[in-house]
Each structure stands twice: as structure tokens, then as C-alpha cells.
Amino acid sequence: MTESLAPTVDSSRRLTLWFVLAEVLLVLAVPVLAFLGVRTLLGSRAGVFVADAGPADPGYRALVDLSPVTAVVEVTEKRISGLVLVTQPGAGEAGGSLVIVSADLLVDGVPLGSLGVPEAVAALERALNLRIPAVEVAEESRWNDILGLRSYVIDNPDPVPGATGAPRFDVGPVIVDGFNAGAFLGSVSPDGSAQSLVFRRQVFWAALLERPPESSDAVAALLRSVAAGRFSVEALPTVPTTADVNGAEARGLMVDAAEAEELLHEIVPFPGGAEPGDRLRVSIIDRTGDADLLAIAARLGSSGYEVVNVGNASTFEAQAETELVVPLGVVDDRVDALARLVGAAVRDSEQIDADADGVVTLLVGVGDR
Hints:
eight-stranded mixed β-sheet, 10 helices
């Protein structure tokens, strides 16, 4: 698959002339930041910092934006027929990935297709431990708006039945447009295979990225943004399973947790947990003045940690050690795993920080730059 990395630099408050010049220098480094996958919000302040600190100065802080994630929910005949998870490297950045999710995916024993849109998205968030802040609903009537006047020749992998049972779409090349896209995506093949429908939808969405629609619809604009850079179309890793649905045994799919998390590591540079604390939240602080904060943040993000911010210590110490500081009262097995990943000693905070909100602080010292 192809990777997608991201990011841009943004400013959120009035700055002095000196800091504006510093920001201009940082903007010139955007290609480097984009490669590393970090998007920072400059000028953010929380607590007491050196006035107008620049990226190389003691006391500097920068928030790290979570990677944009959108769920496109396909609805056919008033029922969810599938979902597509659209991940992007950073806000306004080209490229990304589409992850095809089956309506037969079982979360807590319930298929997504039997739920309403908000409930299905919330269930998918729980299944993937991933925050999905944006949702687009693609009902049958909306496909005309999404595709506009465009039609697509799709190499259909399985027959799609019509109302009479006769194939509406035969195997092989078929024409799909705004008038029949909903039926093409939402009809179950005669063999009833959830995987075959996922593959058909995967072929359809790949065709849309190869030749993105030109309409003004938000989904079309999202596809154009993804198609403008490096992109991939993936099926969510699943395994077959059965569950009791309304007293009857039903076949379905369940998330292959290990493979799904590995996929997310590749396509979501900076993930957020479905709920606060679902992913270990980390603040990264440079103690020496020469640590590569952006590279460290990218490494932790791609390892599944939620990076909250990066910054510099109030003073620099050339021989400072790398430590992981845990707020008092926070007990989390994931702390030890993070400490092993970065080679840090773990210590408890010396005081209770009411604003810590379970965020652990990685103090980067000698040996991790």
C-alpha cells in the first residue's frame, strides 16, 4: 500500500513582529514538517511560558492536531449498506486512505447495518478505538450530487440482483452513475457473502479516486483531496464470526484487532482515542534543546499514542536524562510499554496536576534526539 503523511502550520493569535519572523522561518520548513507528519498550531498557550517563545526557545509549546478522519455512511433503502473511513494526513493536505467497512461488521454482537447512522459511527469508533469527528451520509438520492454528470465503468466482480431477482448488474464491465450507484453498492450478491460486497465496494471507491467527481458536493471534494496525493483503498481487516441477533444465529464479521490497529498506524499519523483516555495521551518536552521533537511525535503517533503537544522545557540541560512523568493517581499498563519504546525511566509527578487529565509527559533527554 502507499503511505500518506501530512501537515501544515497555522497561527491562532496576534504575534509580535519578532515571532512573526520566526513563524515565517517555520513555514519555510513546511515540506520537512509534512514529511514527518506533524501539524502544529503555533501561538497556543496553556500555563506559564516564556513570552513569544519560538520553536528553538525554552518554554515553547505547540499543539498537535489529530489526523482528519471522516466516515462516509452509505444508506440504501433507508438502511446502512456500508461505511467508508476516509483518513487524511493533515487538514488541507492531499492524499490519504479509504477503508471499506462492511455493514455486517458486528460490534458488541450487533451488525452496523441494523443501527442508525450516529449509533453505527459510535460503534465503529469503539471497535477501532479511533475518534471519527466528521460524518457524511451518502443516501441513494445524494449520489447524483456526489457524482454529478460522471459515470464510471466498473469491472463488477459479482452479479448484483434487481427487484425481480434477475441480475441488475452482470459480472464484468458495468456502467455506474448517480442514478444507480446506491443500488450497486447496497445489493447483496446471490451467495450472500459479506466479503464479496466489500470487494465490490472497494472496486467502486478505487474508481472514484482514479477519476474523482468534479461536483461541489462535500464527499466529492473530499475524494479530490485524497486523490491529489498518495492514496490507498483498503478493506478493514476482519474475520468471519457468528452472533445471536434477535434470537437467531447470524453470520457476520468482527474486527481483526491486531491487523486493524497495524493498518491505522500506517494511515493515521496522529490518532485520537474514541473517548478521552482510550489511547495513552502524551506531551513531549525537549530537555536538552536539540531533540527532534517532530520525529519523536511522528514515531509515537504511528505507534498508536495520542500526542497532545510538543514543546521545550523552561530551561535546557545538556546532560538531562529521558524520563516519563506520570501524574499522581494515574495507573496505566501502557506507560511501561511507552517507556520501553523510548528508553525512558518512569517516575511519578511530584504534585497532583488538576489539568493533567491523564496526560503523561515524555521529557526527552540525551540519547533520543
